[in-house]
Structure formats: C-alpha cells, structure tokens
UniProtKB/TrEMBL annotation, chain A:
The keyword Nucleus does not apply. Its cofactor is FAD; AMP. Residues 24-215 form the Electron transfer flavoprotein alpha/beta-subunit N-terminal domain. This is Electron transfer flavoprotein subunit beta. One of its GO terms (molecular function) is electron transfer activity. It comes from Streptomyces pactum. The lineage of its organism: Bacteria, Bacillati, Actinomycetota, Actinomycetes, Kitasatosporales. Heterodimer of an alpha and a beta subunit. The keyword Ligase does not apply. GO terms for cellular component: cytosol. Belongs to the ETF beta-subunit/FixA family.
From TrEMBL, chain B:
GO terms for molecular function: electron transfer activity; flavin adenine dinucleotide binding. Its cofactor is FAD. Residues 4-183 form the Electron transfer flavoprotein alpha/beta-subunit N-terminal domain. The lineage of its organism: Bacteria, Bacillati, Actinomycetota, Actinomycetes, Kitasatosporales. SUPFAM superfamilies: Adenine nucleotide alpha hydrolases-like, DHS-like NAD/FAD-binding domain. InterPro entries: DHS-like_NAD/FAD-binding_dom, ETF_a/b_N, ETF_a/FixB, ETF_alpha_N, ETF_asu_C, ETF_asu_C_CS, Rossmann-like_a/b/a_fold. This is Electron transfer flavoprotein subunit alpha. The keyword Chloroplast does not apply. It comes from Streptomyces pactum. The electron transfer flavoprotein serves as a specific electron acceptor for other dehydrogenases. It transfers the electrons to the main respiratory chain via ETF-ubiquinone oxidoreductase (ETF dehydrogenase). The keyword Transport applies. Binds 1 FAD per dimer. SMART domains: ETF. It comes from the Bacteria. One of its GO terms (biological process) is fatty acid beta-oxidation using acyl-CoA dehydrogenase.
C-alpha cells in the first residue's frame, strides 16, 4: 500500500515585520520578509509523523501557490523532511482571494494525485481558516479539520477537534482533507542534513495552463471579494502608566471606577 | 425589503449572544430571516423574534450532531434557495467560517470572514475587517453572487426589536458528502459558571508571569470580582497552567470586550492579534519595557502578585 500526502503551505509576510498594503490593496510582499506560515509547519510535522507511524510507503508532497519567493517556503518544508514540492506560480494569480486560491490548490492537488491533504488551521496573513473546508468541498471528500491529534490507519483518518463547547472525536475514510492546529505538537527544526538534502529534492513549477485554469477565474480583477479601502489603525493615545509603590492595585481600581467598570 | 439570512448558533435551543448581535446588523441590510438547525431549533424562535427575526426557518435532524459541518451547509443552501436573500450572515466561530466558505463556493459567491462591522452600501453590504493583528482596518464587499459574511462576536450591540418570528419548517435533503465525517464522540466542556470568553464584556488574562497553574486562582478571583471571563496567553497555556480554550490570540480566541486586563503578559504580536480591538486595555507587568504597555489605557508597572490581589480587594470593597 502507498499513501500520497499533499501538504499545502503558504508563503506569508513575517508577522513581526511592518506588514502593510500595496497601492492596489493587496498585501505588500516587497517590503517585509516572507516565510513559511508558522501554522503550516504544524501541517508538515503531522504529515511527517503520519509517515513515520505508517507501515505503508508514504510520499509527502508540499504545495504552494504564490510568487517566485514562495520557493523559500517549499525549501523549508523540504528541509524538514518532505519528499518533493510543487510551486504554482503565474502572474495572473496576483490578488486571488480565498475562493480562487482554493480552485488553484484543488486543481493542483488533483493533478499531483493524493490520498490525504494536510493543511494548517489558518494562514498567518489572511487568517481566514477556510481553505481546508473549501478544498474538501471542491474535491468532494470529507473534511476532518482543526485537529489537535491526528492518525491514519487502514484507509481511515481519525482526529480530535477541540471546539468551543465540546471536544469531538472525528473519523473519515480516505481520501480526505485534514487541517491541524498548533496544539498538534511542536514542529521539528530542519537538521543540517535535512537542509543539504532539500537542495537535491525536486521542485516542480506549474502555471495556470498546466492546471487548465482560465486567467479569468483568478486574480484581483476576477476575485469574488473587493477591498475598497485599508486604513492604518490610529496609534492609541498614550495611556497612563504608574509604577506600583504599594498602591498600584488601588490606583487601578480608581481608574476602573472612573470608567464605570466598577 | 430584501431578506437576509442569519445562521443561528444555539445550544439545545438557547441562542448564543453573537447571533442576537447579528440580527442587529442584519436589520441594517434587510429583513432578518433566521435559520436554526438541530436539536431544540424550534425553541430558538422566541428569542429570535424578540430581536428582529421576521421568520425562523427550522430543521431538526440527527445528522447535524452526528456529522461535521456539511449537513449545516446543505441546510443553509436549501434556505438560500427558498428565500433568495440579499446576504447570508454567520457568526465567526471556527465552524461558522467553514460553513460560510463552503456555502459561498456552492452559491458561486465570495466569502468575507471576521467582519467587525457591517453597513448597507450601494453595491451590497460593506464589511469592516480588522487585519494584520488589528493594525489595519479594511472595508470590503462580496463582488460576485450572494454575499456570505461571518461576523465576530461583540461587533454590535444586542437590540430588542420585536418582530413576527413566524416558525416555518425548512425542507432539507442531505448531500452525498453530508455523512463523510463522522463525529464518533462528543465531550461537552464543563461550564465554569463564568461568561463565555468571546462574549464577555470584561476579560481578565494571565500570562507566563503568573508562574504556575495554582497561581491562576488570583486571576480568577479578580475575574469573579468583575464578573469577567478568564483568558490566558499561549505561554501560560503551553505550560499547562490553563486550558487551551481560554487562549487569547491568533491561534486562540479573539476577544473584543469593553475591558481587557492583561497580567504578566508581554504583548507579543500574536497575542495582540486577539485582543487589540478591546475598548479599554489595562496591563500589569513588572517590566516597564513590555510591549503591552504601548497599547494600554492604564498600566501598572509592578509585581502582579501584589497588584492583582489588591485590585481584587478594592473592587470588592467598591462594589460593596
Ligand atoms: C488581511 C487579509 C484579509 C483577507 N480577507 C479575505 C476575505 O475576507 N475573503 C477572501 O476571499 N479573501 C481574503 N483574503 C485573501 C486570502 O487570504 C487569500 O486568498 C488566501 O490564500 C486564502 O485565505 P487565507 O490565507 O486566509 O487562508 P486560510 O484559510 O487561513 O489558510 C488555511 C490553510 O490553507 C492553506 N493555504 C492558504 N493559501 C494558500 C496558498 N496560497 N498556497 C498554499 N496553501 C495555502 C495553508 O495550508 C493554510 O494554512 C485576505 C487576505 C488578507 C491578507
Ligand atoms: C504562529 C504563532 C501563533 C501564536 N499564537 C498565540 C496566541 O494565540 N496567543 C498568545 O498569547 N501567543 C501566541 N503566540 C506566542 C507569542 O508569540 C508569545 O510567545 C506569547 O504570547 C508570550 O506569552 P506571555 O506574554 O505570557 O509570556 P512572555 O512573553 O514570557 O511574557 C511574560 C511577561 O510577564 C511579565 N512578568 C513576569 N513575572 C511577573 C510578575 N510577577 N508580575 C508582573 N509581570 C510579570 C514579564 O515581564 C513578561 O513581560 C503565537 C506564536 C506563534 C509563532
């Protein structure tokens, strides 16, 4: 038996950098360093663990849709231990929204061939948390999402989903789309050996024509959502800061009373 | 006036507050028609009518509890076909966002998640989003199809606006995908008796500075004196001092209360992402350089083990 896992990984601007919008109201990717979305590291980690715990022959492909630099995200995932990578890159993709992105990812996943798709719980830029569900809808397979524990055995994926009001155990037959949370277990650091090995691993590049996608199905002009404005939040006016010299709690209580919280 | 579908988040018929907020926002763009699914769906009608629902479409079936997400998408799709609404509004929970996205895809529409405000516009509803850890505010629209928009808790005031709230049975036939993901067990979270984190007017949070699970008692005591919910930073959660369901931040809950009190929390960008839109922010931290102080309306530089108990006592005294 063999198990083909496709892990979706997004290349995002560093959250600790000065993120802002470009003139066309898309994310400015030039001024801020990009990296593999940290939440997708958890997806790569779980794919590696599924592979390590499996008697099957497992092949892990990492997939990104993004600009030239997004190769960095693929390299990081390969150096963690994934086997190969697919980069979907096309100028017409600029400004694609969640619905369009899910189309491109779904077509690429189908073309690559898969038994299991593993995604992060959300990206660290758009932070929508919808792409895995959209992929399941497009691929017509079960979604087993937001898992803090995941396992695959005998063609079945099982996992634990910690929801707002309950913890649920979920189960579905493969093929399926899984997303994992940052509670699923720390992601490993690439070893020196891993980094060297990654340089030799294959990275395939596909464009829209390779995926039979028309240019009018994606991109800013054809997006299903339109951003009309983006304004920087005004800096908070400097608050009052006191040093505790024995009365700090009382002073704070007085402030809360003044604001009618007490 | 055009109808607007509002997806009802309820527990056995008890409607949760974010849904009542959605009814307020829905009235700005049309006439709210609520969709309540699953066990106790019919029992939601009175609360929904009181807050402006002209109609309540209900459907009960075991599938909603036994399988993940898709049965609810099937039902909302049936409701959209029955009503042809001007928009569909869904509370921004993790599940709400997944339902909204799949529905939008089926309708050939766009989806906007995590709106913090909603207004009527010339080309349909305009959503306000707070993005990049609340550093930017955007206004966006769905430009194709029936707008599907998820709205964060605490984005609007709950307003009473009595309406007919006529209950109608929705007819739903489940898709082939509906039974794809089985929920094999469900363990409800035990109620702490405190307000729900995302819905609370006041949130009191502790971080690594609290230094131990047992010390969270002083955070809880302050929360109880104020009738607040308890939050925690990821560092406190990862250390096992407080449950993950109470984590505030990018990968935890995002909260937007009237008052947020952070104790022993440095204010990393991922924590700020979940609390920066709070109306009033207060911090207690022994490091005067902690980034959280850049956000505060009032900050105390001091040891939380001194400041928090004193604050709690003073609040109790003032409340009498
Ligand atoms: C601030 C901001 C707000 C936005 N708001 C909206 C909106 O309201 N509606 C809308 O339609 N679009 C919106 N977008 C665009 C949207 O973020 C992108 O289209 C995006 O690729 C999909 O959404 P996400 O990144 O939020 O994904 P999420 O659903 O949060 O991502 C979940 C997972 O999907 C995978 N994934 C997502 N994108 C890619 C990719 N390009 N390549 C590989 N894997 C990927 C990753 O595994 C990721 O962990 C917004 C973008 C930004 C920056
Ligand atoms: C992808 C990703 C997602 C993340 N998601 C989240 C998230 O959802 N939520 C979140 O919170 N973090 C998140 N983080 C982690 C975040 O980056 C920080 O590591 C975390 O917020 C730090 O928690 P802290 O402020 O409690 O701890 P620290 O940064 O260690 O700060 C502790 C603070 O307590 C103060 N202190 C210590 N002792 C006392 C005392 N006796 N009295 C008063 N003050 C004291 C110290 O001065 C210090 O400022 C995420 C990180 C990543 C990479």
């Amino acid at each position: 038996m063999s198990l083909r896992i496709v892990v979706t990984v997004k290349y995002v601007p560093d959250a600790t950098g000065d993120r802002h919008f470009a003139d066309d109201l898309t994310v400015d990717r030039d001024d801020v360093d990009g990296l593999l979305s940290e939440l997708d590291e958890y997806a790569v980690e779980q794919a590696l663990q599924i592979s390590e715990n499996s008697d099957d022959d497992v092949e892990i492909t990492v997939l990104t849709v993004g600009p030239e630099d997004a190769k960095d995200a693929l390299r990081k995932a390969l150096s963690m231990g994934a086997d190969k990578a697919i980069h979907v890159e096309d100028d017409d993709l600029h400004g694609t929204d969640a619905i369009g992105t899910s189309l491109v990812l779904a077509k690429a996943i189908e073309k690559a061939g898969y038994d299991l798709v593993v995604s992060g719980m959300a990206s660290t830029d758009g932070t929508m948390g919808v792409v895995p569900a959209l992929l399941a809808e497009r691929l017509g397979v079960p979604q087993v999402t937001l898992l803090s524990e995941v396992s695959v055995e005998d063609g079945t994926v099982k996992g634990r989903r910690d929801g707002d009001s309950a913890t649920e155990q979920l189960e579905a037959s493969l093929p399926a789309v899984v997303s994992v949370t940052d509670q699923s277990g720390e992601a490993r650091y690439p070893s020196f050996k891993g980094i060297m090995a990654a340089k030799k691993k294959p990275v395939q590049s596909w464009d829209l024509s390779d995926l039979d996608i028309d240019e009018d199905e994606v991109g800013l002009e054809n997006a299903y959502t339109t951003v009309d404005s983006a304004t920087e939040r005004p800096a908070r006016t400097a608050g009052t800061i006191v040093k505790d010299e024995g009365e700090g709690g009382k002073q704070l209580a007085a402030f809360l009373a003044e604001r009618k919280f007490v | 006036m055009a109808e607007v579908l509002v997806y009802v988040d309820h527990v056995d018929g008890a409607v949760r507050k974010p849904t009542l907020e959605l009814l307020t926002l829905a009235r700005r763009v049309g006439e709210p028609v609520a969709v309540a699914l699953g066990n106790g769906a019919g029992d939601t009608a009175a609360a929904l009518a009181e807050h402006g629902a002209v109609k309540v479409l209900t459907h009960e079936a075991a599938e909603y509890a036994d399988y993940l997400v898709v049965p609810k998408v099937d039902a909302l799709q049936a409701a959209v076909e029955a009503v042809s609404p001007a928009a569909v509004l869904v509370p921004s929970s993790a599940e709400g966002k997944e339902i909204a996205a799949r529905l939008a895809l089926r309708l050939g529409s766009g989806v906007i998640t995590d709106a913090v405000d909603l207004e009527a516009g010339d080309e349909g509803p305009v959503a306000t989003q707070s993005v990049f850890a609340a550093a930017f505010t955007t206004k966006s629209r769905v430009s194709k199809g029936t707008p599907v928009i998820t709205v964060k808790p605490n984005s609007a005031a709950v307003e009473a606006a009595p309406a007919a709230g006529a209950v109608e049975a929705l007819s739903v036939s489940f898709s082939a995908q509906a039974t794809g993901t089985k929920v094999t067990s469900r363990t409800p979270r035990e109620s702490t008796g405190r307000p729900e984190l995302t819905e609370a007017a006041i949130v009191v949070s502790g971080g690594r500075g609290v230094n131990g699970a047992e010390n969270f008692a002083i955070i809880e005591a302050l929360a109880d004196s104020l009738g607040a919910a308890v939050g925690a930073s990821r560092a406190a959660v990862d250390a096992g001092w407080y449950p993950h369901t109470n984590q505030v931040g990018q990968t935890g809950k995002s909260v937007s209360p009237q008052l947020y009190i952070a104790s022993g929390i440095s204010g990393a960008i991922q924590h700020r992402a979940g609390m920066q839109t709070s109306k009033t922010i207060v911090a207690i931290n022994k490091d005067a350089e902690a980034p959280i102080f850049d956000l505060v309306d009032y900050g105390v530089v001091g040891d939380l083990f001194d400041v928090v108990p004193q604050l709690t006592e003073e609040v109790k005294t003032r409340k009498g």
